[in-house]
Design goal:
Elements: H1 2-5, H2 14-20, E1 29-32, E2 36-40, E3 50-54, H3 66-87, E4 91-95, E5 112-117, H4 124-128, H5 138-155
Antiparallel strand pairs: 1-2, 2-3, 3-5, 4-5
Length: 156
């Protein structure tokens, strides 16, 4: 049980590092609010795959203050609006992986994944070759989504 219950140490938190950098294609932060930010996933499942991350470095949703939880959900809803406008996405997957055994890649800083989906977006590459085909670079995705975030934030 020491492995399960013990403290784990490692590299600094990627989200906290990105939060400390200026916004742009290097840190992939699309939008900041007082309690959370929206960042592109560096290893996307689909074009536009983003994450909504609270500023507070907490491992799980129940560790967040209620205003942080509310901001996480509000920005997730806004992400859907932005992705519909930018990509014409007709469906979405939203998810939070809490803990390593649940699939969290960044275990100590909870975050919400927002994935745009389209009918037929899973091809034989993902199904049989376990390979993802992303037809747009992250830099292009960033340049496409950033102005839409700014416009929707001003209208909110």
């Amino acid at each position: 049980m020491p492995y399960i219950e013990g403290e784990r140490s490692g590299a600094p938190c990627l989200f906290c590092e990105m939060l400390a950098r200026p916004d742009g294609p290097d840190n992939l932060i699309l939008y900041r609010s007082p309690r959370a930010f929206v960042i592109l996933n560096r290893f996307p499942y689909n074009n536009g795959h983003m994450m909504v991350v609270p500023n507070a470095h907490r491992a799980s949703l129940e560790d967040l203050e209620a205003p942080d939880q509310a901001e996480l959900m509000a920005l997730s809803g806004q992400a859907i609006t932005v992705l519909r406008q930018a990509y014409g996405a007709d469906s979405f997957n939203l998810g939070v992986n809490i803990g390593e055994s649940a699939g969290a890649g960044i275990v100590d800083h909870v975050h919400m994944h927002v994935l745009p989906r389209w009918a037929g977006d899973t091809s034989f590459m993902a199904t049989t070759a376990e390979t993802r085909v992303i037809p747009e670079s992250l830099e292009v995705t960033y340049q496409r989504l950033r102005p839409i975030w700014e416009a929707t934030a001003q209208g909110a």
